[in-house]
TrEMBL record:
<dbReference type="Pfam" id="PF06155">
    <property type="entry name" value="GBBH-like_N"/>
</dbReference>
<keyword id="KW-0408">Iron</keyword>
<keyword id="KW-0479">Metal-binding</keyword>
<feature type="domain" description="Gamma-butyrobetaine hydroxylase-like N-terminal">
    <location>
        <begin position="7"/>
        <end position="90"/>
    </location>
</feature>
<dbReference type="InterPro" id="IPR038492">
    <property type="entry name" value="GBBH-like_N_sf"/>
</dbReference>
<protein>
    <submittedName>
        <fullName>Gamma-butyrobetaine hydroxylase-like domain-containing protein</fullName>
    </submittedName>
</protein>
<dbReference type="InterPro" id="IPR010376">
    <property type="entry name" value="GBBH-like_N"/>
</dbReference>
Amino acid sequence: MKAPKKIRLNRAEKTLQVAFADAEYQLPAEYLRVFSPSAEVRGHGASEPVLVSGKLHVGIDKVEAAGRYALKITFDDGHDSGIYTWSYLRELGENRADNWEAYLQRLRSAGKGRDPDESAVKIIG
């Protein structure tokens, strides 16, 4: 897969713009963090990926090339072990809506949230 023609980090908006010759994607830091290709998130084997919650406010500190085939993204929560290949970045861009909806459903099912300050205790009445 060819490298993107443009990669831009917007720290203020917490997004990574990735432009390929035929498509361009705005990928939020939270989305990139919870879909990190690291073993910490993907798991070690064929099991379901680890559900990462509470990353609503996460940002990106640094983006650097990993050879000629990928990016290494360092998040402001200290996570930096995922290598985002060009094909994985394209996949994340192409499938963003479906991936995000599935992620939100997994959070709801697990009783977890995006906001790290959200309490799991709800008072009704």
